[in-house]
């Protein structure tokens, strides 16, 4: 079994202001009337460590899932 899993890199996007927010914290809207301003979008691909449950690798998301898979393979000591 692979330790790393390639997943979509997603974030909240504010349709009004263009602001971004992490999906791994509190919801970015301050009350229910502001909920409609936020949409979850996919911005690329990242890697999740299934042992430590850490998502991401300290860099911007990869453009393709194949690039993320090659990175995960390098982390596991396999071919790129």
What would a concise description of this structure say?
The protein has 80 residues and is mainly beta. It is 14% helix and 35% strand. The model has no long low-confidence stretch (mean pLDDT 94).
Write structural notes for this entry:
The chain contains one helix and four strands. It has one domain (4-75). Strands 2-1-3-4 form a four-stranded antiparallel β-sheet, covered by helices on one side. A hairpin with a 5-residue loop joins strand 1 and strand 2 (20-22). It has one helix spanning 65-75; strands spanning 4-14, 20-22, 38-49, 54-55. The longest helix has 11 residues, at 65-75. The radius of gyration is 15 Å and the shape is elongated.
Total strands: the figure is 4
Going by helix content, strand content and strand pairing, the class is: mainly beta
Indicate the proportion of strand residues: 35-45%
Q: Estimate the helix proportion, in percent.
A: 10-25%
Return Rg in Å.
Answer: 15 Å
- What would the principal axes of the Cα set say about the shape? elongated
The largest beta-sheet arranges its strands as: 2-1-3-4
Q: Main beta sheet: strand number and arrangement?
A: 4 strands, antiparallel
**Could you state the order of secondary-structure elements as H and E?**
EEEEH
Number of domains: 1
């Amino acid at each position: 079994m692979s330790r790393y899993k390639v997943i979509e890199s997603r974030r909240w996007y504010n349709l009004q202001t263009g602001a971004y927010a992490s999906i791994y914290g509190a919801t970015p809207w301050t009350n229910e009337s502001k909920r409609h301003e936020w949409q979850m979008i996919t911005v690329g691909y990242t890697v999740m460590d299934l042992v430590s449950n850490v998502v991401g690798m300290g860099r911007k998301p990869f453009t393709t899932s194949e690039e993320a898979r090659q990175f995960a393979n390098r982390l596991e000591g396999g071919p790129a």
